[in-house]
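The passage that follows is intended for readers who have already worked through the single-chain material. We present the inputs for a multi-component assembly, then the predicted structure in tokenized form, and finally a short commentary. You are encouraged to pause after the input and sketch how you expect the pieces to fit together before reading on.
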Amino acid sequence: MIETRTPLGRAVLQVLLTLIIIPFVLPLFAMVQGSLVGRGWGNYKTVLSVPHFTSFFSNSAIIAVVTIVIVYACTMTAAFGFAKLRIRGKEYYFWALIAALTLPEIVLLSPLFVTAVRLGAYGTLWAVIVPLAALQIPFTLLITRIFVDRIPDQLFEAARIDGAGVVRTFQSVLLPLTGPITATIVVLTLITAWNDYLLPLVFLPNPRNQTITLIPQYFIGQFNNDQTKVLAAAVITAIPEVLVYLCFQRWFERGLSAGGVMK
Amino acid sequence: MSLRSGVQRTGSDAQGSEDGLEASAVYRLKTRSGIPRGRRSFVPSGLPWILPALVVVLGVIYYGIGYTGYISTLNWDGTSSNPKHVGLQNYQQALHDPVFWTAIRHTVFFFLVTFTVQTFLGFVAAALLHSRAWMKSVYRVLIFIPVVLAPAIMAPVFRQIFAADGQFNSLLRDIGLGALAQPWLAQPSTAMYVIMVATIWEWTGLNFILYYAAMRQIDNQVLEAARLDGAGNVALLRRIVWPLVRGTTMSLLVLSIIGAFKTFDIPWLISQGGPSYATEFLGTLIYRQTIPLAAVGYGAAISILLLIVAISLSVVVNLSRGSKGETRE
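Having made your guess, compare it with the prediction:
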């Protein structure tokens, strides 16, 4: 984009770039630096030795995996139905489903709370998983339907002529062709579920059931507002997120830019 | 960017992001089923296939909205078995509540600042990284990492940085600006800027990655031609590149508006909406009324108002975007 003819020009460009990036790196430095104040690595030892510290991670993982499975199953079947099958009044159903695309989750706070208490789901991971999935499906369905619409109808007709039933067509024709969009759905749902704060805050009062996003608040209570431990916990929580991102960089960038509209 | 142009560009690297960019345009798109009329009857019924999605989404979201609407007419603490019906009184109270209007003003101001800064930084960073620079992939990763991290995890970090004895003030002292050091989060005049900084930090990477993908689609010959006509770097970016990525800017605009109205995690965790409502948003207001203050009916009324604002905004934005999109084609 920007032309640099001289070595000086290239150097200026590099400096400019670095100046833009520095503010994005500084908070990460501040986080690590703050976590080492006082007892140094001892802060990390204290955090890791908190009983059931790992359960924050396993709870977040369970929530993410189950939400992904629900979202994936509902999205794929519905996208297939909308794109390739016959439904009377199809577009009305579709509209009803994607109208909730931009709904802020906080709007559902009180009804979900009352309902979860009444159904006995309050305090269980289901109280977080089901609303998460319901809020995610409108968007994943929208992008998946666009994707499935682009697959030629002839493929499905050929399968039908060869005697394949609908279920077989879904399994053997549709699913193998939807790899890229599956990756997008998985990454998008993973980030939404893993980073969600409001639903666990409201529905998971017991520390044993809580997710990683509630760790800072747990440690503020646990260590009497000792910032160094809170920051050490933040570093430990951030590391897996950064590692997973680095391993699946391309998918993360694609998935999140697709999800941008929703955030 | 129309659906058709998206179809032709199959297998492109930016496919994921295109899906997203087109997403809201599809609101208005009536998708053809693509099956010739006479053979329609052979196509099996799809109703059972869309049923799981319908049950989950309608069961949670529509039920939830309906229930919120009902609760909004009650004077209720969330637990008593016998709530009193008060009609539209909660709405009246909200519209006369100065904090409600403060939250709306904050949302608008917050949106204007964060959108402008994020767009500018994202655009410039994307342009610089499409030029000849060293270690480009490192810069890309560094600017995108914040998008992946949970705001809830980073909130304590920003509290620490902008505390009276935090790293930001020591940085100011180190570079000789010690006179500017102040308790940023403890005073109403500056707390909002901390919230904005945290938000910009969190989301600029997304603007960057969308612009980065959009700029990859720009034909090099267009840029060459502009250069032959004597356009300098700044003129090139302003007159050629900026108009060419307009679709992305519009998507980011929608995204930022929606994001501003959804704002909750960052202001709640950094400053609880305070001090003295200086960082109050609709999200934090609804949460405080519903959970800590147990004014569930009142919280529900504000939720419905938020819903109305969010829906009318996305309709307005989609309509205006639609008409402009058509003239471009």
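Commentary: Chain B touches chain A through 124 residues (CB under 8 Å). The beta strands of chain B are 74-75, 84-85. How closely did your sketch match?
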